Amino acid sequence: GSTIGIIGGGQLGRMLAVAAARLGFHTVILEPQAGCPASQVANRQIAAPYDDENALAELAQACDVITYEFENVPVEAAQKLAEEKLVYPPPIALEVSQDRFREKAFLNDCGIETAPWHLVNDTESLVAGLALFNGKAILKTRRLGYDGKGQARFRGDGSDDVAGALASIGNAPAILEGFVAFEREVSVIAARDREGNVRTYDIAENVHSNGILATSTVPAAISPATAEKAREAAEKLLNALDYVGVLGLEFFVLADGTLLANEFAPRVHNSGHWTEAACAISQFEQHIRAISGLPLGDTARHSDCVMENLIGDDIARVPELLKEPAAVVHLYGKAEARPGRKMGHVTRLKANK
Ligand code: ATP
Ligand code: MG
Ligand code: MG
């Protein structure tokens, strides 16, 4: 069989490696951290930094196709690999999604609406942006934010410390977004193969707690027309990026059904973990199929479900969860349950179909 390289060794890399193994592929991961979640299932680990030239050459040598499991892979590393081997998703997807300014601009250029935003290069441009949004806004670092980190909120009630907020996210460059009074948050997991065929899974409704995804519920409580708009937006984005693989696109849904795209991740996505329990073909297998030139699998859902992330001490609930019927438990093999750390997830299937 052929060999798939995966840059990054976290739980997403682990689940990709499992899916790859099930289709008869070998996997090699590039990940500096020893004992990482993916190392327990991949055939081999190259333990080096993601931008290490020798390690990248070794990865290219060992693999037929190379993918990644996190969006902060150094773009130059992906581009260098792409000179020698197939790299999917294409490096342009990394370039765009690593920078919230480029991401918002790219979405808008595709005709996909977002929250109103304003580029912040200094305190002056932040003050100007706040005036545009009546003081109610969210400041986000352009790079490296995740799980709500690197963000600061402005209430517009006179209590805001503008310079302090900018300092709290590590200063500019940043973007300011108008605060969206959304009714709910949803996401779509979409896949595009090497020939340009696109398939999307049903829309998930996502609830966050302390900035971290807590649950994804499928189906989302949105109209069929809104769901269709979300799928169409994802398809536009995939085509514009000439994308190959699975992508997650997050939206805010307003009371009138208007969708505002928030961000996308050029990889399998936490809000798509339910697919392993409620669909014949999971997002992980779908990604492996897409990047390997295999036909995309069926995205149909056989059950309604709720995926719950197991974070930190939630891991202690596993013995009880295992007693529940129709609860599909998936653990990441992490030894230490630090607060805020994603340890696993459980998908509860509803016997409704
Ligand atoms: P992730 O872990 O999903 O990558 P992140 O750190 O990249 O998170 P966002 O997804 O941009 O950050 O924001 C985190 C959450 O903050 C959103 O899911 C949403 O609940 C809230 N949020 C972000 N932007 C806005 C906005 N403009 N208006 C209102 N709420 C927002
Ligand atoms: Mg994000
Ligand atoms: Mg997000």
Q: Please, could you describe this protein's structure?
A:
The chain has helices at 11-22, 53-62, 75-84, 91-97, 100-109, 123-132, 162-168, 224-240, 275-278, 283-291, 318-321, and strands spanning 3-7, 26-30, 44-46, 65-68, 86-87, 117-120, 137-141, 151-154, 174-178, 184-192, 198-200, 204-209, 212-218, 245-253, 259-265, 305-311, 327-331, 342-349. It is globular and about 60 Å long. Helices cover 28% and strands 28% of the residues. The protein is built from 11 helices and 18 strands. The strands form 3 sheets. Strands 10, 11, 12, 13, 14, 15, 16, 17 and 18 form a 9-stranded antiparallel β-sheet that branches. It has a 5-stranded parallel β-sheet with strand order 3-2-1-4-5, sandwiched between helices. A 4-stranded antiparallel β-sheet has the order 6-9-7-8, with helices on both faces. Bound molecules: adenosine-5'-triphosphate and magnesium ion (2 copies). The site of one magnesium ion has 3 residues, from strand 15. It catalyses: 5-amino-1-(5-phospho-beta-D-ribosyl)imidazole + hydrogencarbonate + ATP = 5-carboxyamino-1-(5-phospho-D-ribosyl)imidazole + ADP + phosphate + 2 H(+). Pathway: Purine metabolism; IMP biosynthesis via de novo pathway; 5-amino-1-(5-phospho-D-ribosyl)imidazole-4-carboxylate from 5-amino-1-(5-phospho-D-ribosyl)imidazole (N5-CAIR route): step 1/2.
